[in-house]
Amino acid sequence: MIEKNISHTPHADDGRKPRSDGEQSRERLLHSAIRLFAEQGYAKTSTRELAQAAGTNAAAISYYFGDKAGLYRAAFAQQSANPQDNIALYEQPHFTLRQSLEGFYAQLLAPMQQGEIARDCMRLWCREMLEPTGLWAREIDQNIRPEHEALTRVLARHLGAPDDSDDMHRLAFSIASLALQHMVGAEVLHTLRPQLLETPRAIDTWLARMTDYALAMADVERQRLALSPSTAQRQAEGQA
């Protein structure tokens, strides 16, 4: 699996002095790799193609990323962030539910400010799901799982429900799906209604609307819990 092959990839900052245009060359390689890997998959994309697309040579891939597997890992991780940094944007004890949801959507939608590169990254993630190399499973376990569980804790705290209940997980998945549909369906959205994505202000409008929609979903769940016999029983037990 690629995951095993790329765990020891050297970096350009390991003591070797980069060329004056080193950062630009690295970025060209990375962006070309995101596009080609997304279009063709890892196995069908050669180092020669990657180098030609970036206007450089195969030696640059070794220099900056170690090998093709290292370049693939860097391309796949382009849109990833430290999950704890993301969680800190929405799991704060003093936040209102609105503030928490705003923070949650802010970190999910941030990559969309990057335009075409963000769409290429999403295509690469979809390719990885269809042709797994091991990186997608690791992404779920190390990044998606802790962020999802943090959202369920936030929702449970504000709705007065157990944070590991199916209800809270179901609500968390539903709230996240508003942004995920936007991300996965960005190409459709761009074709049908491009003005909804064209500017940072347009993305900010999405964030505000999604927060309103998510609050409405949470309110429906709050009402459902209030009518639930199990909720009434828990409240009675707590008052006894």
SSE layout and pairings?
Blueprint: H1 2-5, H2 22-40, H3 47-54, H4 58-65, H5 68-76, H6 83-88, H7 97-109, H8 116-130, H9 135-159, H10 166-184, H11 186-192, H12 200-227, H13 229-239
Helix pairs in contact: 2-3, 2-5, 2-8, 4-5, 7-12, 9-10, 10-12
Please tell me about this protein's structure.
InterPro entries: Homeodomain-like_sf, HTH-type_TetR-like_transc_reg, HTH_TetR, Tet_transcr_reg_TetR-rel_C_sf, Tscrpt_reg_YbiH_C. It holds the Pfam family TetR_N. This is DUF1956 domain-containing protein. It comes from Janthinobacterium violaceinigrum. One of its GO terms (molecular function) is DNA-binding transcription factor activity. It contains 13 helices and no strands. The chain folds into 2 domains: 57 residues, Arc Repressor Mutant, subunit A, CATH 1.10.10; 149 residues, Tetracycline Repressor, domain 2 (Orthogonal Bundle), CATH 1.10.357.10. The N terminus is likely disordered. The N and C termini lie far apart (56 Å). Helix content is 72%, strand content 0%. By secondary structure, it is mainly alpha-helical. Helix 2 packs across helix 8.
Provide key terms for this protein:
240 residues; mainly alpha; Arc Repressor Mutant, subunit A; Tetracycline Repressor, domain 2; 72% helix; Homeodomain-like_sf
Q: Which percent range fits the helix content?
A: over 70%
CATH class of the largest domain: Mainly Alpha
Major β-sheet annotation: none
Number of strands: 0
Domain HTH tetR-type: 23-83
InterPro entries: Homeodomain-like_sf, HTH-type_TetR-like_transc_reg, HTH_TetR, Tet_transcr_reg_TetR-rel_C_sf, Tscrpt_reg_YbiH_C
Protein name: DUF1956 domain-containing protein
GO molecular function, one term: transcription cis-regulatory region binding
